[in-house]
Amino acid sequence: MKFYNLLIKYRFYLGVLAIILAVVVNISAGFWSAFILYFLGVIALASHFFIGPLRLIQEPMEQGNMEEVKRIIDTIWFPNLLYKPIRSTYYTLKGNMAMMNQDFDSAEKHMKKSLDLGSPMAEAEGANKLQLGMMALQKGDMKTGEGYIRQAIRAGIADKESQAVAFLSMCQIYMNKREFRAAKDFFRKAKALKPTTKEVVSQIKEIEKYISRIPG
User: Fold this and answer.
1) What phi and psi values does residue 211 have, to the nearest 5 degrees?
2) pLDDT tens for each residue of the chain, 216 residues long
3) N or C: lower Cβ tally within 10 Å for the chain?
4) Alpha-carbon span 113 to 107, nearest angstrom
5) What is the CATH number of domain 62-158?
6) Domains of the chain: which residue ranges?
7) How far is the C-alpha of 43 from the C-alpha of 26, rounded, in Å?
8) Contact, 76 vs 52, CB < 8 A?
9) What b/e readout covers 53-89, taking b as 16+ CB neighbours within 10 angstroms?
10) CB–CB of 22/38 below 8 Å?
11) 53 Cβ partners below 8 Å, 6+ apart?
């Protein structure tokens, strides 16, 4: 695995080296003697531009090393050349990085690009739409926010914490619309997931203080 990661990390330079050696062998011994070097060089360069190095981000992501994740993402010079599902993942990662830096305009732009390309997994589509919905709510655009969050719930959200966030957001939207029965239903769904994230638990406790006294 470590060898494979090293191969991915340096395949562009190995590909260039293989092509240079192929040219030298071609001149001195003929094309067929250089064929295997040409072949390996083209495969290495094509995989660098069409597949990219996103496989390398798993370990730094698990370690929380976001600087290394950014460095790897920045080695993708021509994202439009990436294979479509990989390009979608690339824009999702760019959107997540922008969210972490509180750059919501860039985050929204990248997330929309990812959705336009079609997420490789339904769960990724759900996560993207949830983030777009949350950003819309932060801007005060309740209608757009509700639309995206509904789509996220339909698409499927992988983890329970994010599901709880989606249901609590819908609860608050319906509270604002004074549709209390629907608000209570979404609150029950969020609570039933038993989230453990500090912020989500705190939000549930805060809503619970007054939702039981609301009619509906």
Assistant:
1) -70, -30
2) 677 778 888 899 999 999 999 999 999 998 898 999 999 999 999 999 999 988 888 888 777 788 888 899 988 999 999 988 889 888 888 888 887 777 878 888 888 888 888 765 556 778 888 888 888 888 888 899 999 999 999 888 878 888 999 999 999 999 888 888 999 999 999 999 998 888 888 988 988 888 877 765
3) N
4) 10
5) 1.25.40
6) 1-50, 62-158, 159-216
7) 18
8) yes
9) bbebbeebeeeeeeeebbebbeebeeeeebeeebbbb
10) yes
11) 8, 9, 72, 75, 76
- Cα dihedral sign, 130-126-93-110: negative
Q: Which residue has the tokens 């499927």?
A: 156
Q: What is the pTM of this model?
A: 0.71
Q: Rounded to whole angstroms, how far apart are CA atoms 169 and 9?
A: 41
User: What is the DSSP annotation of the chain?
Assistant: -HHHHHHHHHHHHHHHHHHHHHHHHHHHH-HHHHHHHHHHHHHHHHHHHHT-SGGGGHHHHHHT-HHHHHHHHHT-S-GGGS-HHHHHHHHHHHHHHHHHTT-HHHHHHHHHHHHHH--SSHHHHHHHHHHHHHHHHHTT-HHHHHHHHHHHHHH--SSHHHHHHHHHHHHHHHHHTT-HHHHHHHHHHHHHT----HHHHHHHHHHHHHHTTS--
